[in-house]
Amino acid sequence: MLTRVAHLASRSVRYLQAGPDEGEAVLFLHAFPLSADQWLPQLLSAPPRKRYIAPDLRGFRGMGQAGEDFGPEAQSMDDYAADVAELLAHLDVGAATVVGLSMGGYVAFALARRAPGRLARLVLANTRATADSDDARAGRDRAIALVERNGPIGLGLEMVPKLLGESTRRDQPDLGDAVQRLIEANTPDAIVAALRAMKTRPDSTDLLAAMPCPVTVVAGAEDAIVPLGETRALHDAIPGAELVVLARAGHLSNLEDPRGFNAAIESAG
Ligand code: MLT
Description:
Layout: E1 2-7, E2 12-18, E3 25-29, H1 40-43, E4 51-55, H2 77-90, E5 96-101, H3 103-114, E6 119-125, H4 134-163, H5 166-171, H6 175-184, H7 188-199, E7 215-220, H8 228-236, E8 242-246, H9 253-256, H10 258-268
Parallel strand pairs: 3-4, 3-5, 5-6, 6-7, 7-8
Antiparallel strand pairs: 1-2, 2-4
Helix pairs in contact: 2-3, 4-6, 4-7
Bound molecules: D-malate.
The site of D-malate (MLT) has 7 residues, from loops.
């Protein structure tokens, strides 16, 4: 597995890659407020002939290296999706299996809107197609204030217990610290930009009846952020979609149950 930086026309993007430089591509879009490193359990067990690619969404993690211009923060999910489409073009990938978890799923919907030809298959994990409710928008404002007051550390301390399911908190006590470290590696600016972009993201339910590719929906039965019932409703709204429920996973299902998650990706690919 390699860490690389792609120098695109508009900016630089850090990404992780496992597998060959050509061949069937699988693109991983991370959750808020993590980074490409969220996908290490997937990249480290990538099937030999597949090209696994996991970029940091704009502003996350890959900041501040000399000579690299990561550009201004994102304003919208569409900005993240534009970067991803540009990265795929740069890497000579036509269409990929796109795996989006939570915020990564919001970006995948934006990609489906602006560049449907880039999607060979779609795995939507622990995510929703709806826009933020009024309550959720108020929650974004509270989270912005928290980051401005206590930084990524404070946000992490509040979020991590909610991100992981009950089984994980009991059986994998170290995972919470690992997630906290991923959160702390981000800048406050990147986190605040993502909160604003999520708060203003459009509703994507109009896309569900005619998705441009086959879809697998992955749920964590112990997900406290996107409850199982909501994920089932997302699945039911996508004709022909497959549903995989990971019984002992919460919101960060790829980290909590890597085996089950990897099997879901392979069944999708
Ligand atoms: C995520 O995991 O990406 C976030 O929980 C998404 C959100 O806050 O809507």
